[in-house]
Structure formats: structure tokens, C-alpha cells
């Protein structure tokens, strides 16, 4: 008898488990159907009259438990049913045949679009995804998970392998999370004493050491500065090992200048990256390297640009080939414009200077409202350590490579226009990406009047601006591209204009004609302006976005609040 009871209990438990598993595997809410009635149909009358009529016909309509509004202005309702009375699929088919109903469907689950790597230490990298761990503020991060929904790095839309050059103290050449993403000069035969690719460097197979004039790029600094910086840019992501860089896939070009050196060594280092990209441009990618960014997490405090007439113009030379240079601001507190700092004082459009915030959003290092462009998170950030392993690093040195990595990630987006621009007009492509970085920042009070943009890096916003830039029809004078649509709490509205507009007004109306939002702004030519609209208090329903200029309504877009 006991065996029979145990067997029945096992069967019951298994049935419950299967039932639970089936519910969890569904892509919609059990026992719920969404319907949209035809215009002019009254939901309460439909529920009463049609149910009574179908009850007489012995239909499944008595299985409807309740009807609640979802978007009443659009005549959209949620129907809850009794599944002990009928099956979901049977009732759904009957609702689809109802002449009063325009649309009937299941109430599907919606998932957050955020890509997370399977690396076990990713949870330690709060700068990528701040959930409030270790006294951080949830959401205060650079928005990588959302950006990774679009791309995780690697190549451009035209297949160019993206390279980020790191001028530093070297790299741990055998680190498990760095080895897969290291750059090699495949046009060079190692250790044969010849300049096989004709770039002016002999045996530069693994990169270049500007002090020793060879390709010995092994990390020599016991603090592992270069190894930590490299991990921020491009530790291999989603490989089940360690953590992840801004790019899961990218080529890390290592150029060694050493922990101490001279301006001569720095110029040699910049020249190597310049030579490789120039050769790539000249040979249509047959030789050289598609270097899009250089990370320079070092500098000279107390000096001004006037004393460096050779160094400062070099950034423009790099930019002409399509290379942006990212420099770490001074770790000394204070305004670098007053105290002096190099190379952040150089007035180049192809230079981006980065300071550092901590996990509470506090500025902890040098700043400059005219010399420092933006911030990233550089205090107690997790990255690769020399001689294997991982540890925390602090300073602007580890904020800057987040921006250098973001440049590489933007180039990897599925944007044919940017990839084509990078090949045909590399300098213009570099300037476009710089604008994407600076215009996509998240403003924060602690950076107001402290950095040029007043904000910190948000790669997801920069990627959204790039998407708007790439999907715009060049024949259209003005275009709105609000997203997400439908939306819930916040609406992002990139506005594109093929001609610059000094004054344009964006307005949002509900279907009753009430204006809920208005903002007058200027829009640059051929580059989207990004407007953020907080709409958490708006009721569900449809809204109209209207863009006006010169008193005329130019563009209208419909959006839906869920």
C-alpha cells in the first residue's frame, strides 16, 4: 500500500513539475488574450450582448472571466479566461472570428534587450553593469549591455578588422583573456631580420617597442598598468573566462614606450600607429592595420601646449588617417587648464580627454571645463592583471580606455555608411565618431562646469545616435526616429536634418490634442540631435510627436506608451 501511495505521489509531483515547466516555457501570459475592437464598438456592450448571444449558442464565451482596458483610446482590452472551462487556443480562434474584433492575440512576455556575457567575473565589473554592488548606485554605468545588443565588436560592416592601439608599458602576452584578442602583423615574417611588408619596421610581428626598436611587447611594469588598460579595451568577452572588455572581440595593438621615457619615445610610438593606418588606407586594407583609436593613459603635469610645437600637431596627423587619440586627464585634482597638463592641453579635434568618476558618480581626479571632454568610471574597476588573474585598478588611466574601447565598438556597428565613410573619408569618419561619443554622454551634476560635455560616457546612447545616423534617408530633409516604440518610461528621440536648423520645436500631444511636452533646440547638419523625454507619468495610449520649424509642421511620428 505504501508503495502505491509513493508511486501516486511521484506521479502527482511530476505532473505539477511538467505543468510548471510548460507555463515557464510559454512566450505569453497564461489565461490572457489581448483584443482590439473595431472603431465604434463599445467593450461593455460587446461583453454583455455578445456573451449572452454566444451563451445561447453554447460557445466558449462563458469562459471569459473579465475584460480590462489596456489602451482604451485605441479600443485595446485584456481578456482573462478560465482555462478549466476551455483552452486558450480554442478561445483565441473564436475571438479572431468575432466580427466585432479587429485583432486578437496572446499577451506575450517582453524581455529587456540587454546582452550579458557568460564570463564569471562580469558581475564584478560594475562599470559595465552597476546593480548597486559594493555600495554603487544602480544604473550608474556606461550602458554596455544595451550597446552589446547592437554589436560586441570585431569588424566593421565591410569586414575591416578593428584595431585599438595601446601605447603603454606592455601587455601580458599569455593572459587567458587577452591572448585571443592580441593584434599581429600578419604581413611580417617574425624574426627573419627583414621588413617584409615595407612599412619601415623590421620584424614588427607582435607590435612595436619604441625604446628597444623591436617587437618585444611583454609587460615590464610590475604594476601591470598596460595589461590592466588592455583588459578594459578588449578582454575577450563571452568565453566563460574572467571578465570582459568594452569589446568582446577587437584587435589590441601593443606599442611599448615604458614606464619612463622621453617625448622622442612618445612620438615614435604615435608614428607606428600612424604608419600602420596610413598603409592600410593606401593599400585598401592589403597591408597595415585599421587602427581607429589610440589609448594614451599617461601625460605630463604642469606644462602647457606652447612648449610642444611638434607633439600637439601630431594628433591632427593621426586624425587625417582616421585615428582618434584618447588621453587620460591628470590624476591631480584641480583645473588642468590652470595647472597645466599635456597632452590634454593640445587643441586638436581628434583628441578626447577623459577624467574619472567613482561608483557613486563623484569626480575624484583632474578636470577642466575647456580641456577635459567627459568622464568614465575609473575607481576600483576590475580588469586583467599581470601574470594572469584579475584585480581592481584606479585612476584616469582606467577611465580613458573605456572611451577608446567605445570608439572601436561604434565602428563595429552594422552601419554600412560609417564603414564606407571610414574607407573613403577616414578623417570625417573619425570626427563623426567623436561627436557620437560626446553627444551621447549622460549629464550629471558633479560634472557640470567641470568637463566640456558635463557628462559621462554612455555607449548605448552613442550607439543609438549612430543607428539614427545610419538609417536616415539622405533625401529626407527632416526625420524623427523615436525609440523604443512602443515605450514605457523614457522616450529617446534622435532628430536628423540634412541642413542645419537654428531653431526647431519638438512637441508631443495626446489624442485629445493636449500638449504634454515642448522643447526648442538647434539641429546640426547631417548629425542627429538626441532628445530624452521622461514620460513615466503619462497614461497608456498613442501620442503624436510633431517637429516644427519656421512655424510649419514638418514631421509627425506616432508612438505608443505601454
TrEMBL record:
Secretion system C-terminal sorting domain location: 484-560
InterPro entries the UniProt entry points to: Peptidase_S8/S53_dom, Peptidase_S8/S53_dom_sf, Peptidase_S8_Asp-AS, Peptidase_S8_His-AS, Peptidase_S8_Ser-AS, Peptidase_S8_subtilisin-like, Peptidase_S8_subtilisin-rel, Secre_tail
GO biological process: proteolysis
Domain called Peptidase S8/S53: residue spans: 159-412
Gene3D superfamilies per UniProt: Peptidase S8/S53 domain
Pfam families: Peptidase_S8, Por_Secre_tail
Domain of life: Bacteria
Keywords from the UniProt entry: Hydrolase, Protease, Serine protease
Catalytic residues (positions): 168 (charge relay system), 225 (charge relay system), 397 (charge relay system)
GO molecular function, one term: serine-type endopeptidase activity
Family statement drawn from the similarity comment of this UniProt entry: Belongs to the peptidase S8 family.
PANTHER family: CEREVISIN-RELATED (PTHR43806:SF11), PEPTIDASE S8 (PTHR43806)
Name of the protein described by the UniProt record: Peptidase S8 and S53 subtilisin kexin sedolisin
Source lineage: Bacteria, Pseudomonadati, Bacteroidota, Saprospiria, Saprospirales
Amino acid at each position: 500500500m505504501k508503495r502505491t501511495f509513493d508511486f501516486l505521489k511521484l506521479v502527482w509531483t511530476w505532473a505539477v513539475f511538467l505543468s510548471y515547466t510548460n507555463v515557464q516555457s510559454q512566450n505569453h501570459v497564461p489565461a490572457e488574450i489581448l483584443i482590439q475592437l473595431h472603431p465604434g464598438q463599445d467593450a461593455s456592450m460587446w461583453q454583455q450582448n455578445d456573451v449572452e448571444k454566444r451563451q445561447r449558442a453554447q460557445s466558449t464565451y462563458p469562459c471569459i472571466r473579465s475584460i480590462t482596458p489596456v489602451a482604451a483610446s485605441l479600443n485595446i482590452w485584456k481578456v482573462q479566461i478560465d482555462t478549466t472551462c476551455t483552452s486558450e487556443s480554442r478561445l483565441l480562434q473564436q475571438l479572431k472570428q468575432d466580427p466585432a474584433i479587429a485583432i486578437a492575440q496572446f499577451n506575450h512576455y517582453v524581455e529587456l534587450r540587454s546582452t550579458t556575457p557568460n564570463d564569471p567575473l562580469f558581475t564584478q565589473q560594475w562599470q559595465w553593469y552597476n546593480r548597486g554592488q559594493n555600495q554603487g548606485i544602480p544604473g550608474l554605468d556606461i550602458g554596455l549591455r544595451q550597446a552589446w545588443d547592437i554589436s560586441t565588436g570585431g569588424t566593421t560592416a565591410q569586414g575591416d578588422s578593428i584595431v585599438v592601439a595601446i601605447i603603454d608599458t606592455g601587455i601580458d602576452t599569455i593572459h587567458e583573456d587577452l591572448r585571443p584578442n592580441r593584434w599581429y602583423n600578419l604581413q611580417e615574417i617574425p624574426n627573419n631580420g627583414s621588413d617584409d611588408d615595407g612599412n619601415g619596421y623590421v620584424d614588427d610581428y607582435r607590435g612595436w617597442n619604441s625604446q628597444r626598436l623591436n617587437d618585444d611587447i611583454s609587460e615590464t611594469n610590475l604594476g601591470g598598468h598596460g595589461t590592466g588598460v588592455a583588459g578594459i579595451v578588449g578582454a575577450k568577452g563571452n568565453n566563460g573566462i574572467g571578465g570582459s572588455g568594452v569589446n568582446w572581440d577587437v584587435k589590441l595593438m601593443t606599442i611599448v614606450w615604458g614606464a619612463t621615457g622621453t617625448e622622442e619615445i612618445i612620438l615614435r610610438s604615435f608614428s607606428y600607429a600612424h604608419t600602420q593606418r596610413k598603409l592600410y588606407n593606401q593599400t585598401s586594407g592589403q597591408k597595415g592595420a585599421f587602427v581607429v583609436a589610440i589609448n594614451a593613459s599617461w601625460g605630463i603635469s604642469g606644462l602647457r601646449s606652447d612648449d610642444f610645437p611638434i607633439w600637439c600637431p601630431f594628433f591632427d596627423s593621426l586624425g587625417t588617417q582616421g585615428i582618434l587619440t584618447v588621453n587620460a586627464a591628470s590624476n591631480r585634482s584641480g583645473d588642468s587648464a590652470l595647472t597645466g597638463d599635456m597632452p590634454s592641453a593640445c587643441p586638436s579635434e581628434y583628441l578626447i580627454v577623459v577624467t574619472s568618476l567613482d561608483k557613486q558618480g563623484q569626480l575624484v581626479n583632474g578636470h577642466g571645463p575647456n580641456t577635459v571632454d567627459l568622464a568614465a568610471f575609473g575607481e576600483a574597476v576590475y580588469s586583467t592583471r599581470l601574470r594572469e588573474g584579475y584585480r581592481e585598478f584606479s585612476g584616469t588611466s582606467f577611465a580613458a580606455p573605456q572611451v577608446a574601447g567605445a570608439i572601436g565598438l561604434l565602428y563595429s556597428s552594422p552601419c554600412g555608411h560609417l564603414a564606407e565613410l571610414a574607407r573613403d573619408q577616414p578623417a570625417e569618419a573619425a570626427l563623426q565618431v567623436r561627436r557620437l561619443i560626446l553627444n551621447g554622454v549622460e549629464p550629471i551634476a558633479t560634472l557640470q562646469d567641470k568637463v566640456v560635455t558635463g557628462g559621462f560616457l554612455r555607449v548605448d546612447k552613442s550607439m543609438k545616435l549612430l543607428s539614427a545616423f545610419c538609417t536616415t534617408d539622405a533625401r529626407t530633409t527632416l526625420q524623427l526616429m523615436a525609440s523604443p516604440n512602443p515605450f514605457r518610461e523614457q522616450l529617446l528621440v534622435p532628430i536628423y536634418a540634412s541642413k542645419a536648423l537654428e531653431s526647431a520645436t519638438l512637441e508631443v500631444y495626446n489624442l485629445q490634442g493636449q500638449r504634454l511636452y515642448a522643447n526648442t533646440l538647434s539641429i546640426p547638419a547631417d548629425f542627429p540631435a538626441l532628445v530624452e523625454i521622461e514620460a513615466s507619468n503619462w497614461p497608456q495610449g498613442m501620442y503624436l510627436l510633431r517637429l516644427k520649424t519656421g512655424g510649419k509642421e514638418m514631421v509627425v511620428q506616432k508612438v505608443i506608451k505601454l
